[in-house]
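Re: the request from the purification team.
They wanted to know what the chain is likely to look like in 3D before they choose a buffer screen. I agreed to run a prediction and write the result into the notebook, where they can find it.
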Amino acid sequence: MSGTPALAAVVGVFGLVIGSFLNVVIWRVPRHESIVSPPSHCPGCDAEISPRDNIPVVSWLILRGRCRHCGKPISPRYPAVEALTGLLFAAAALKLGAHAALADYCAFFAVLVALAGIDLDHRLVPRRIVYPAAAVSLVLLAIATVVDGGTRNYVDALIGGAAAFAALFVVHFVSPRGMGFGDVRLAGYIGLNVGWLGLARVAVGLFSGFLFGAVVGVAIMAAGRGGRKTAVPFAPFLAAGAVVAVLFGGPIVRAWLGP
C-alpha cells in the first residue's frame, strides 16, 4: 500500500484543519468546556477569532504570533500542532494510499496529538477521548477489514489492543505512581490500531515509546532538571512510538525477525 503525492497533499491540508480543531480540544477538554461553543476566542482579551485569523499556520505567521485585537502573544504551539497534524495525515496517506483504513489512521494520529498535548499540560489522559476514539477505531477498522475481504487483521487488532493493555497494566500494578492508568488505556487504544497492521508492530510501538521516554528521562537528569523520581508525562512517548510503528514498523520488524 502506498499513496501518491497528490493524495498526500490533499489529506495533509485536511490535517491542518483538523490540527486547528485539536488545539481547541487540547485547551478545553481538560477544563471540561464544550469543544463546540463558544467559537474560538483569544484567551487574553476574549475577542472572537475571525475566519481570516483562523487559517491554520498561515494566520499565525501573518499576525506574527499575536492577537489582532489585544496584541497578546499566541503560543507557537498552536501552529506547531496544526503543522504536525498535517504532516502526520500526509504521511499516513503516503503509507496507506487510498485504502479504506486511511480514515482510521488519520483519526488515530489526530487523537494521539490531542492526548499528547493534554498530557504535557495536565499530566492527564482523558478517558472521555480514549473510549470514544477506541469505539470509532473498532468501526473503521471493521469496515477496512471487510473491504479487504478477510478477518485476520481485525483479530490481530483485538489481540494487539488486549496485549498492549495487559502489558502496561502490569507496569501500572507494580508501580502505580510511575505508570498512570490513563497510559494503560492509551496503550490498549494504540495496540488496537497498530495491531491491525501486524501484531509484531505492537511490540515495536511499545518498545519505541519506552525507549523515547528513557532517552528523554536521561537527558533531563543529565541537564540537572530532575532525578529518577521526576514525573514525566508518558503519553507523548507512547504516541511517538505508535507513529513509528505505523509508518516504519514493517521494515523494523523485518530487520528484527530477519528474512
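For the purification team: The chain has two domains: 1-98, 126-259.
Please add any questions underneath this entry.
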